[in-house]
Amino acid sequence: MEQEYNVMVVFGTRPEAIKMAPVIKELRMTPGIHCTVAVTAQHREMLDQVLNLFGIMPDYDLNLMRRGQTLPDLTCRALNGLSEVFRKEKPFLILVHGDTTTTFAAALAAFYARIPVGHVEAGLRTGDKYSPYPEEINRKLTGALADVHYAPTPTARANLLREGVEPRSVLVTGNTVIDALLATVRPDYRFESEELQRILRAGSGGRMILVTTHRRENLGEPMREIYRALVQVLVEFPDAYVVFPVHRNPEVRKTVRSVLGDLPRVHLIEPLDYEPFANLMARAHFVLTDSGGIQEEAPSLGKPVLVVRDTTERPEAVAAGTVALAGTEYERVLWHLRRLLGDKAAYEGMARAANPYGDGRAARRIAEHIRKRSRGLIESS
């Protein structure tokens, strides 16, 4: 009987689950690989939505989320909990994703247990350790601990090489979020939410601006500036309307309601599951966001993205022209909004630009690389 190698996939948030679901699927179809899943559930409800969508049943669920949890507390509980899981399972390889607290804690626990770490979506950098916070440092520390780096783009690979990472340990794969997105968006998708159905009917013939904001560094005045720009552009363009799934962070909600509450053509809704959100994004005219993953997803659907941040760890999209870095100041955000709504050539240029994040086969490349590594066909770094 062929030996099976246990590859453990670890994650804790909804974005990680979305991006790792295609990897789990491919690993489970790969001969000689036994894929186990451990979740910290540092985001409980939002994570469960994606687990249900992709049919993932974790082998270990630490259920760490606590109301008002701090980063030090979460990090310690994740480190202790995952250390115990690794001690019991003794995986051949641990796979983590991106830049969350779970990712860093899992990589550190694996290092303590002398278990190799594969880092999916490796090599993203802004160069500012506080932007985004704490993600920039999480990804750098994870990169220092990882043995294999699955970089989504050549730019990410170059970042790693500049930091002294061994070239043979880096594989450019594309981004797994494109795999997940292409498997989720359907032209015949029907929204179950009656509220969304009403919003889309009312906006028929208009142009939807899909908005998401949640970054810690944008809380307070930066968010107010962003929302004020939205208010002004809706005055100037009567066919535009906003759909805004509002993050559950109480500070975000307070600011949103104070600036955008009860305005015509502004629809504040509860956060959406991944499937309806992805399909709503496909119907948007463009997206305004401070999210990282949306910078990769929306261009795959031909949707321009205005990133309301001062830095981005995804410069490939800016260079390709699919994303514009709009900052958070009122005048600058308003200029970008006016440009996409009032300049057809500018809009088409962004909508038609080539997406630099892959072809939907990233997970397959990762699984094949792990299969070869398990059989000694690739020299370990």
TrEMBL record:
InterPro entries: UDP_GlcNAc_Epimerase_2_dom, WecB-like
SUPFAM superfamilies listed in its UniProt record: UDP-Glycosyltransferase/glycogen phosphorylase
One Gene Ontology molecular-function label: UDP-N-acetylglucosamine 2-epimerase activity
Top EC class for this record: isomerase
Keywords: Isomerase
Family matches, as Gene3D superfamilies: Glycogen Phosphorylase B
Taxonomic superkingdom: Bacteria
EC numbers for this chain: 5.1.3.14
UniProt keyword Cell wall biogenesis/degradation present: no
Stated family: Belongs to the UDP-N-acetylglucosamine 2-epimerase family.
UniProt protein name: UDP-N-acetylglucosamine 2-epimerase (non-hydrolyzing)
Source species of the chain: Acididesulfobacillus acetoxydans
